[in-house]
Amino acid sequence: MTSVLDWLLRRLSRWPLWLLHAFGVAVGWATYLSSPTYRRRFIAHAALAGVTPAQRRAAVGQAGRAVMELPRLWLRPLDEPLAPAPRWSGIEHIEAAHAAGRGIVFLTPHLGSFEVTAQGYAERFGAAHPITVLFRPARKAWLRGLVDGARARPGLAAAPATLAGVRQMIRALRRGEAVGLLPDQVPPEGLGVWAPFFGRPAYTMTLAARLAQQTGAAVLLAWGERLPRGAGFAVHLSPLAEPLPQDGEGAQAESAAAVVNRAMEGLIRQRPEQYLWGYNRYKAPRPQAPFEAGRDG
């Protein structure tokens, strides 16, 4: 079974983007209609954010597009760039951080193509300023090997969600490099705080603020808009509208998490039909596994 799935994914990786996205709409609707739990969560989360019925329907197909584009993004040859090349807006914020010798913490929600933001940065800036992205290893062994290899590209390194991975990211920032996080991903218990997200408490990571506070890195919001008819992607960059509290402990950690969540809400409201409303954002955090608690060996 593993070899069949691997073969299928590699075949899909050679399909043109427009065809993958066309099939993705069908995948999105099939998932939505076949899973009552997913459908209820999707509707409830979209309603919290004030998403219109038309936007919600569009988001169903966009969720399928997000899945179907992954083989092309993960499995194309290492020397093959993204095609077409991503369009950029706000690139001056990256250039200013590089000119000042500062690292960059990119905050990217589950909006649009979050894989493209890191890959696009690595292709354009990674030779001089590599990027390290935080990831949670896949549970399936065959998928873990596939994903780990896909995210190790020129100028792009992957750091596991462990204490060793956090140290790897801190070292990268202190070298003036970049790191990327999904701050709307629910962290393990003890690694976050409860903060409002579209008016409902959500367990929110504190890592983003701590990385910036400990290294003096610039914090930039980034998301990869999925363009219509398979035309590629546009990467949008902007600074945080509110400053992060300087102290990362206690009430200040909650304040920092609230600032990050408000920033994510602002991005999502730009294109709510490209957000993954089916993601279980409000779930209780799972207990830390020993490796996540920091047993590096």
Percent of sequence in beta strands:
15-25%
Main sheet overview: 7 strands, mixed
Low-confidence residue ranges: 290-297
Q: How far apart, in Å, are the first and last alpha carbons?
A: 32 Å
How are the strands ordered across the major sheet? Answer: 1-9-8-2-5-3-4
Number of helices: 12
Give the rounded overall mean pLDDT: 90
Order of helices and strands: HHHHHEHEHEHEHEEEHEEHH
Number of spatially distinct domains? 1
Description:
The protein has 297 residues and is of the alpha/beta class. Helices cover 47% and strands 16% of the residues. It has one domain. It has twelve helices and nine strands. Strands 1-9-8-2-5-3-4 form a seven-stranded mixed β-sheet, with helices on both faces. A hairpin with a 2-residue loop joins strand 6 and strand 7 (200-205).
Provide key terms for this protein.
seven-stranded mixed beta sheet, 9 strands, alpha/beta, 47% helix, two-stranded antiparallel sheet, disordered C terminus, 297 residues, globular, 12 helices, 16% strand
Short description:
With 297 residues, the chain is an alpha/beta fold. It is 47% helix and 16% strand. Helix 2 packs across helix 3.
What topology does this entry show?
Elements: H1 2-12, H2 17-34, H3 36-48, H4 53-68, H5 70-75, E1 87-89, H6 91-99, E2 104-107, H7 114-125, E3 131-135, H8 141-150, E4 156-160, H9 163-174, E5 178-181, E6 192-197, E7 200-205, H10 207-215, E8 218-226, E9 233-239, H11 250-270, H12 290-293
Parallel strand pairs: 1-9, 2-5, 2-8, 3-4, 3-5
Antiparallel strand pairs: 6-7, 8-9
